[in-house]
Amino acid sequence: MDLSFARLRRRVGLAAALLGLAPALLAAPICVIDDAQREVCLQAPAQRIASLSPGATELVFAAGGGERVVAVVAFSDYPPAARALPSVGSHSRLDLERLLSLQPDLAIVWGSGNSAEQIDALEDFGVPVFYLEPENPEGIAQAIERLARLSDSQAVGRQAAEHFRRGMAELAEQYRDAEPVTVFYQVWNKPLMTVNDAHLIGQVIRLCGGRNVFAELPRQIPRIDIEAVLAANPQAILAGGMGEENRYWLTEWRAYPGLQAVQQDNLFFIPPSLVQRPTPRLLEGSRLLCESLETARARR
């Protein structure tokens, strides 16, 4: 074979090989803005996701990336498939050694819940970090869409986000002109804690035609005392509890028969995971909350 021809063939072969690699080499990174307003870029869709709060876990699954989750934290109990995944501690204290051994290529973190020091450590080890902290219903829908982009499941994420948006819009329309009901929402018992109107739960109360008696307090989750609740005298008391079926917080309010909410039996239990996690299940929790306030209206 002519030597010059052989060289030419090798060059052509090399060029063809490089052209074959070109799409992968030139593929644009996947970039999204997280809730800390940082641009997070991946060279390819995430394949091994560490979800470091129960709410983040629900959102990743809703976005269609559940099969890519390799690590969760305590209380990541929904959907049921999440319970079988390896746990790497709690949202406030991670087992970093165990987490890193699972080789995540993306960590979904809770900015106000996860340890800032441990988040920094993850980044030091080269793990891309996506901050997630939806502050309103639209933020939940957008979180689903962004997570779907990072996990290459846009069709699933788009459908889930639109279903959530549509459901919340329908509730807003249904209760737009509802007669107001004054409401106390109990987040915790000892110390006694509630929400203001900036909190996601406060927004849902307002959507349902409720008037949060502690709407104007400066902190999103303020501590109060029983005397403040008695002085506000709400027409309805809503509470979660230390579990999905634990209603004893409401029972304790029956010791105060002078309260309007007690007199009219407007003590309503809302499973905490439905309203205290910023996830698509907020739609279900919002429906329950709206129905509770509608019952209170009927009991006047």
TrEMBL record:
UniProt key word Transmembrane helix: no
Gene Ontology biological process terms, A to Z: cellular response to iron ion
Segment forming the signal sequence: 1-27
InterPro entries, per the entry: ABC_Transporter_SBP, ABC_transptr_periplasmic_BD, Vit_B12_bind_prot
UniProt keyword terms in alphabetical order: Signal
Record carries keyword Signal: yes
Residues in Fe/B12 periplasmic-binding domain copies: 48-297
Name of one Pfam family that matches: Peripla_BP_2
Superkingdom in the source lineage: Bacteria
Descriptive protein name: Iron complex transport system substrate-binding protein
